[in-house]
Please model this.
Amino acid sequence: MQLIPDVSIKSKKVKPKLVIVMGVSGCGKSTVGEQLAEVLGYEFIEADDFHLIAAKQQMANGIPLTDTMRDPWLRRLTQHLCQGTLVDSVLAYSGLRRRHRQLFRELGFTTLFIHLTTDLDTISQRMSLRAGHFMPESMLASQFSSMQLPESEADIISLDVSADLQHIIDMAHAAVALM
Model:
């Protein structure tokens, strides 16, 4: 009598998804991120909420943060993402530096970065219309110069934010569906 090996399909453990909506200040990360999280039923996380008051004040005074100053912020943010059970999440986060983006890839999630892009003049105009945000329009040039563009990073898609908001959400949603 020949024994037949168990060939039943074992369920693969599916890693939770982390969708990071990234770009310079004023590009719409929070707006897109919140709406995308709502559509997907994911937790929404605003990275700005993890900045120290002193860091926000420094940026409000027109002084960019250094990478050394960003490190404690990133540590708080990654610790928050990893506390307890990992859950599907959308994170609104600048993602200016390649090495900082890499930190999120190493947390145990399946990651997708949605890079919101447009020209400096469009973002400047948007920033001039918003009220109550700590980041002044005068910091925009520094944001553009600090952004390390996603080259050879396969988990990043770019969406032009000069398009209609619903179109951006639909495109982002379609990209997440392919994860």
Observations:
- The chain has a mean pLDDT of 84.
- The first helix runs from residue 29 to 40.
